[in-house]
Amino acid sequence: MGVGREQPSTTVYYRFEDSSGRLHIVDSLESVPQALRPRAQRVAYTEQPTTLAAQLQHGLSSWQVFALGFAAALLVVVVFKRLPGTMRIVLRMAIVGGVICVLAGGYLGWMRRATGQASDALATPAQIIDDAKSAVAKMNARQEADQAQLKEIEQAK
């Protein structure tokens, strides 16, 4: 069961100045007085989807992820129990640690694939951190652009 991609939504506003020079922003042309409609300016604002559900184009359901995690835990237990008692504990821990690292890398790789960041099977925590930094930089740039647009609207009055 996957989650569909949301489409960006566009909202249209109209800005106009009344006879006293006061700036108004309304959401429909009908809200602009008839005499001021020729001078009303149309402002379109496109909102990009930012939720995780919007970023998930396809992926595993929560039950499938749970089943994979449970199967991985069972695999670790089975491997640990099957090792002969004569092997050193260090070797056991190394094998279990290696399996845990591969499973963690697979999980992080799945997270990056599910959010559309990459198509690699394995990923490292550093890659997840870089993805988060990139997302923050994009969000900051978007907020600055929105602020600049609002400032432009305010200055135009």
Can you walk through the features of this model?
With 157 residues, this protein is α+β, with helices and mostly antiparallel strands. It has 2 domains: 1-58, no CATH class; 59-123, no CATH class. It is 52% helix and 13% strand. It is built from 4 helices and 3 strands; from the N terminus they run E-E-E-H-H-H-H. The chain has helices at residues 52-55, 62-82, 89-114, 125-155; strands at residues 9-17, 23-26, 41-47. The chain has a 3-stranded antiparallel beta sheet, with no helix packed on it. Helix 2 packs antiparallel against helix 3. The longest helix has 31 residues, at 125-155.
Report the mean per-residue pLDDT as an integer: 79
The whole-angstrom Rg is: 27 Å
Major sheet details: 3 strands, antiparallel
Spatially, the strands of the biggest sheet line up as 2-1-3
Low-confidence stretches: 1-5, 53-57
DSSP helical segment count: 4
Gap from first CA to last CA:
50 Å
Q: Order of SSEs, N→C?
A: EEEHHHH
Number of strands: 3
Shape: rod-shaped
The proportion of residues forming helix, as a percent range, comes to 40-55%
In percent terms, what proportion of residues is strand?
5-15%
Structurally, the number of domains stands at 2
- Which structural class fits the helix and strand makeup? alpha+beta
